[in-house]
Each structure stands twice: as C-alpha cells, then as structure tokens.
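Field: sequence (string)
Field: structure_tokens (string)

Example rows 1 and 2, in order.
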Amino acid sequence: MTAPTANPDRPTQSVNLLNVVTPFAAAGTTIAATLTFAAFAARYHWRLEQACHFRVQYFWSLLLAAVVLRAAKRPRIAALALIASLTNLAVIAPIYWPTQSPNNTGPKLRVISFNLLRDNPEHAAVTQFLRHEQADIVLLMEVTPEWATVIETLGDVYPHQKIVSRSDAFGIALISRHAWDECQAIDIGADDLPTLVAYFRVDEAPFIFIATHPLPPGSRTTAQERNFQLAALGRFARQASAATILVGDLNITDFSPYFGDLLRVSGFRDSRQGRGVQASWGPLVGVEIPIDHCLVSPTIAVRNRHIGPHLGSDHRPVVVDLCLPHH
C-alpha cells in the first residue's frame, strides 16, 4: 500500500498568493502610515483634519499589512505597519476606558438622534422604529417638507413637535413626549443653519436640550464654519443655567482636535465614553465613522448607548438612555 503524498502545488500556490499580495500591502502601508502621522497636524490644514477621522480603518488595515509583510520577510516595512497600527490604537483606545457616572435618582430619559437623509424613501420603517423605541425626545435631521408630513403622523406618540423643514440637507425637527417650557430655533454660527434649543422640566428636574447639525467640512471654508459653530455651542453650553444635553450630527469625530476643544470649552462628557467607537455614518460597511453624538453635562448619568439599525439613510440612529440629577 502506497502512502499518500502531499499536494506539491499547495506551497507554490501559497507563495504565489503572498507574492501577489505583498506589493499591495507595502503600498497600502505607505499610504496609511503617512495619513496616520499626518493626521496629527489636523489643526494646520482642513485636508489633514479630514484624514484624522479614519483611525479605526487605518488600525485594522495596517495590522493586516504587518502580518502579510512579516510573512513575506519584509521586516522593515512590516515594522512600520505595526508601529503605525499601534499609533492609531493609542488614539482609539481612550474611548473604551470606563468612566464613573453619577449615581442619579432623577427622571430617566431615552434620547434618539437620527439623520434621516432627505431623499430616504423608507418612511414606514423610520416611523415604525420611532414608535417601537418609545423615546422621550427625538432629534431628526435633513427634514424636508415631505419628511415633515411624515413626522407629523407621529403626533399621537410624540405630541410636542418643533419642525423646521428645508429643501436642502439642514432641516431639523425635535419631537417629544414631554412638553417643553420653551423651544427656539436659533442661529449659532454664521451659516443661517437652525439649531433648536428646548428648555424642559420633567418631574421638577430642569434641563436644556440642544439639537444641531453643522456643515460638513468639505472645504476650507465649510470646515472653518463648522469649527466656529462648535466653538459657539461650547460657549453657549458653558453658560447654561441647567444640566444640558447636546445632540446631533456634528460632522466630526472624537479623533479631531476640534472635538476635544468642544468638550473642554463646554465641560461635556461624551456619552460613548467606556462604550467604544460606535460608528454611525458611512456609505459602505467597514468605512463607518462616529459623527453622530450625544454630549451631556457631568451631572447627567449615561445608563446605556447603542447604534440602531439601517433605515434607508447613510446614518444609523443613536439611542441613548440618560438619568437626570434629582432636583
């Protein structure tokens, strides 16, 4: 009886595949490593600030490249890939660090923030989701006149509605189970974009709810205008007379230095802290980034936070459970 012999083609096939993949891994490492380190100069040019938002993608692609290049016996560029990958990990990791939340006994709130996408045809799926989640306050963005009509049908569940519809991508709506004392559409910044500021009192616990949607940083001018609006929001929140919640598609990730400026000026905490990246926007799976935010005053406890399902938009809903300080 003759013993079976190994397939002689397998090692050759493996070597051939490695030979094919290695040049792509080396080229990808050069690009991703360059972007990784260039992103630290985000304050100096708006293009570099754009590069800083994709830290998660850089981390995984560079880690994979490091493995391939090490197997291909390219130790120098493999080391570069590993160093750049770990650099991105060092930037990403802090959002996973647990934080101590205040032990509040006040009213509990469920908040939803969702950029609808103005041309999104999934009206029924969106309204079904909002009915099912039973949120207390919902912020909706890219509200067109057509979407405004859809939102009004939720009046039996969310009877208090402030809708500022527009034909562009900056219509905005705030709908709530709770009555507000006052809700204003104000212009914070120089862009003629509405920000909604609502003053609530739930079970005698006062709080301020700020809903906003700055311009995306698609050019030097719009990047500057977004930064100006975020800075103005930070100053507004710092002077607020009650615990404050800032919610919206801020068109920025926590990897940007301007996001850090907003937290420092306002005194807010990121509701994602200790819960991870929770990417909410992206045209393709795998390139999603966290630009939809819920920031809160330190006196507000964050009980839970998660990203909702795909509902026809390039964004996914952000669902946050909060607990107000007892008043």
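Row 2 begins here:
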Amino acid sequence: MTKNNSEKNHSVLFVCAANQCRSPMAMVLFKDMIAKSKEKPDDWRIESAGIYASNGSPATKDAALVISEMGLDLRDHRSQPITESLLDGFNLILCMENEQANSIKRNFPTVKDRVLILSAMADQDQDILDPVGYPHNAYKNTANEILEFLKKGFSKIIQLSS
C-alpha cells in the first residue's frame, strides 16, 4: 500500500522562478538519484514549484530536451506556484537563488528554517542562474551544475529532508 504524502519520511521541494526549467530539472535529477541509491523512493515526496509560476505550464523545450539527453523525462511536468500549504508539506525547500530563498523566508516565515539554496547542500553559496533566453548549451550547463550540487550534497539533502 502506498503512503500518502503526509506519511512520507523525506520531503524536498525544489524552487525556482517559473517552475519550467531549473526546479523541474533538479526534481527529476534528484528523483533519479534516489531511485539509484539505497533509499526507498516510496519514502520520498519530491516536487518542484516556482515563486512566480502559473499553474499547469510545461517545462521549457530546452529543459525537456536536456533532461531527455540525460535519459530522463520532463514531458509530464506542469508548473505550480508556491503557496503556504504547499511549503508546509515539505521538510526541506531548496531554491536555485538566494533571492528566491529570501523571498520565501520573508513571505512565509513559518517555513524559514527549512529554506536553503541548493548550492548550500555542497557547502557553497552560489546562485544557479536561469538559462531561459540563452542557447541550448546554457541549459546543459545548468543541468550539469544542478547535478553536481545534488551529488555533492546528496547526504546532506537526505539528512535535512527527514
């Protein structure tokens, strides 16, 4: 029997601006890492959202293509905006940029202790810049940058998401 979201042992929400590029890429890359690890995927709630996202927009074509080139799939992704109830459902909220983290902390103070930037998982303080509007190669670089932070911070994400 599958647990419902409130019974998940681990939960992480990836956040960017529009929830069409960086946070969906981080979400599918991290889900893949969990599936290939000793972790039990059924124990995890892994989603993404955007500070300025509308409901139901697909991932950008370049983001979907880059993820496809990495052997994963973003075709079914649909954007969602952050809300207080959404944020309340996660033990760890990882933003792509400091300004996004600061915005959530200001606007949703009840979750401020759970909000960090993704690079902090690898003991760095580096924004992951939005590749929207740049050539395809920028999306590849962004996906690889996200993947490196996820790899370096994997054990910290597991620890903080429980």
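free_text_note (row 2): Confidence is low (pLDDT under 50) at residues 1-5.
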